[in-house]
């Protein structure tokens, strides 16, 4: 039994410790966000955050994750209340088939937590491990920028209201 | 030929609809969408094969509508576009529509979702059906109040009339009201009055995809579901020589090892167990390999040496010239569809009935193939489309459907989910075929093209089910089905010869299709089929001819174009790019232009772009690409932009990087390390898409319009930078670097 | 920091070292020229220069990630501060467009730029001093016929007094002893060619020879192993820690193709080197291999390779796929073995041939070397995808593995797979490797 938190909720899983996180998320915890793309850490469709850092869940055995904090695209918001990054991807219509997008978003989330105001080069570099086959790259880049702006505005508002108090 | 098809028949997917399919099977095999070439009834779009209005649209008692399409969402946004069309003509808000896509149990048979035909076929059918349903509802309201239908109108799901009376759609509809055949003509909404069409309506599928909703067949979890994996042979045609499956059968969690001839699969309670069992089984199996693949380094020669069936597809004037100003052999390697998500299907055998959830592009053809494969009646097999990762043509979707069905037979009552592994998708998908095109052209004294010859060599681009022999598993089982006969898609759409007939006005021209019945590597439909290479060849040659005659490439094209819509997109792309006023490119940079009308029947697309090449490494990046596109009546402008942007980026990847690698026995491109594609570092720095609106004109598909022009425009830009014409795809860094080195030398030699 | 302080005091001492040093230090400018026309060079000379630029690895330092080749600006962290590489395209204002052949030759051989300023020895003029006139002329022809790129290199970020170029004169006095190449008549032509290239243009010793506290190569310990950008540059010749001794053929294959079945794949700073050599003339690379092989082999014979556990024979798939099924070792087994089986073995025990397959770790020099540096770098950073080329990809485990897991895995690999005693001071090495790896998921991106 391995225990970790997933999107803020503590979960204990019974899968064998050598099972890659991807299959535990999908098959044991019924989360769809992380996708099987290659099983080799080459494409990024399975990307999730562990303790805030993006990794390939398809090659990460859960034995490494005892006590750690995992975040998937489900942890960024919901259909009814999308988070800033999700709202940005919807606003930019940044998907075609969308199979790569959840992993793409987790990589972008890591970037925005590290560099709140990324420039084009930051975004290209950060997303390099992620493959998209439909050619939605231009929209993904725009969506990450839009999310960064939204987060900055939200922070400015929060600071303003903090200051007013 | 008309058939009375009852609602129940449609629901059961049996009876007259099936009869219609089997009667027209011959025609189905001959077009890329599976639709009949010759109209049956003269009705618009797919209404022609499925005329009953309530096969397409049902009005619920609450006034909401359920809309049916035989086409499938492949990530191209078709679900949203079709809902826009239906909502516009029904005068019903999109939120009150439910769209049911390809399902042999519920929807019309619209063949394959392919060839950029979906809006044209299904959109046209739905638009007319919706308009006719609306008029029937208005007529019913008029009948009830004794008014003239012309005094009434429909809005927001309500029929309203003078004096303020109104009926909700739900109040008007009755059992048989919509159970009528469509009429040949409809009262369509004037494009000036559109409120839903020609608007950038947000895609209905995206919210689930960005929040972890169940968006794909890969995400389905049915009660009692188990996981299957397949062990594929190491090479084409390999036979299983020896296997002791005992160690796998006894692995904890393994339910079954399925072996039928050389078809090998495992079923386990958990997915990871199934993968481990698959790997163990693969290690235990011993194979006899017999495949003899061509010499990859000499692929063009190998293809041209194969026996061919030759068809002259264009022959006007005197195409033979005493000498040619341009004479070039163009080639492309085999290309992988390379879906990011390997193919997946879920199959369940319950009693004598099989249900398969699949991301196939053709639920009906797959249903028929599976029925034959499993020796089941067609009405006992139901195929339901569920989205997969983008396929861009025929990937492993159909094959994995057969794999899942064969495994499901071994565990009756339990749904079996099978997903291919990365190496299986890469090695076993039917590739976009390797091809060769030979172009020769001569210039007249006036700078016009005086003679033109185009020869193209290609295997089939259409090896979809129907015949069970198209499915991998059907070839591996102990009692195998014969290989499916190769299909040469006929003109005007064509297969390998797609777009081999230039749209330019050429008084002396010949084009010959050298169809290769043999298939050195497994191949089938991949976006734009032969169009990518043929447009690459034609547009490269056009640029060279322009240069030789001292004309601007855009002027030279316009000089040879009569089609007004073609002239408009060429002019639009050039103007938006600033082609005429383009500054002298800095060292290492250059400009390229290309144009095509996809299939000479679909969307028009012209692309101008600027590239930068690193002189020392040959690394090539698009700095700016400007596309102009005419897709007829636009349903969703943002959807069109998304498709064109995507087409440019995807074709940039094909053009700069991609090539399926193989040795003399096996495919060796089995993952993203051995089949690199474009990553973010190579994303074009800027893309603009300008839509030339054509309100009221027929829909033209947009999904494959940009690929051909993109490859050609890149090659033309490389020529602009290096002075070298590169004709062998891909234009990879080593190739471009060699051209750069040659062009940087102090004394220039002619290219 | 101790290193830095020693270096500083040394420099100050030397700088104060009297008139002789000053006289040596003062170098005049060489007059600027009008940028020569491309047509003033011969094509075959340009092509020969292109080959020498590849062997000399010029573009690796004189190009930023994603930047134009030879336009400079790459930040090179040294123990003493950050030095930025210069623009060596023929742009007249920001590059070397106004440099005459004499100025170029002086820079290459003596480490003095056209204006007369001493260059920092990050530019390996201590090796280039060996280069022949004709070759420098060819390299000059190649560089002067490149497309000029306007790019001003950032100013170096060095503390006082190292930021004083004059101080470098003192350093040169102590450590820079230019020589001309003298062929060894007792050796054949390829060996002499190889030695000329290895010691000169290719400047292999710049990484593979240890440096003293003041950053100069210790010539008495040539090829005894050094360091580059946080990676060990393994000893060559008699000190090589390779499990299977290098042969001339193996060295040739490795340098030309970037991998060798008995040794693995070139990674870290060696990767761009072999990428360049892949384009260089095959006979030159073979000559370098001949010379390097002649450095000798370790006297001591290695113990036979221990059987790597778990024994994967029979688990390797004979199909298109190359991932092996790995049975989980029992919970009683060492944690390192369990981690290896779960996280590494499916690729590294699958038998897929190099370069795309996982290296057979029993043969890896990273496991048998005196330092865990490279092993840790690879485990943490992985091998990022190449820029459009078919090349190995390995995921990094920096986010997945905590220090305890890493320690257990490394212990297993070092002691059981390599059969060697554990590395001393592993925690410090892990901390350093982790620091280096933090930005790494993105570092390879724009290359």
TrEMBL record, chain A:
SUPFAM superfamilies: 2Fe-2S ferredoxin-like (SSF54292), CO dehydrogenase ISP C-domain like (SSF47741). It holds the Pfam family Fer2. Signal peptide: none annotated. Gene3D superfamilies: 3.10.20.30, [2Fe-2S]-binding domain. InterPro entries: 2Fe-2S-bd, 2Fe-2S-bd_dom_sf, 2Fe-2S_ferredoxin-like_sf, 2Fe-2S_ferredoxin-type, 2Fe2S_fd_BS, Beta-grasp_dom_sf, Diverse_Oxidoreductases. CDD domains: fer2. PANTHER family: BLR6046 PROTEIN, OXIDOREDUCTASE WITH IRON-SULFUR SUBUNIT. This is (2Fe-2S)-binding protein.
UniProtKB/TrEMBL annotation, chain B:
Residues 211-291 form the Aldehyde oxidase/xanthine dehydrogenase a/b hammerhead domain. Gene3D superfamilies: Aldehyde oxidase/xanthine dehydrogenase, a/b hammerhead, Aldehyde oxidase/xanthine dehydrogenase, molybdopterin binding domain. SUPFAM superfamilies: Molybdenum cofactor-binding domain. This is Xanthine dehydrogenase family protein molybdopterin-binding subunit. It comes from the Bacteria.
TrEMBL record, chain C:
InterPro entries: Cyt_c-like_dom (IPR009056), Cyt_c-like_dom_sf (IPR036909), Cytochrome_c-type_DH (IPR051459), Membr-bd_ADH_cyt_c (IPR014353). Residues 44-147, 189-296, 331-417 form the Cytochrome c domain. Keywords: Cell membrane, Heme, Iron, Membrane, Metal-binding, Repeat, Signal. This is C-type cytochrome. PROSITE patterns: CYTC. Transmembrane segments: none annotated. It is found in: Cell membrane. Gene3D superfamilies: Cytochrome c-like domain (1.10.760.10). Pfam families: Cytochrome_CBB3 (PF13442).
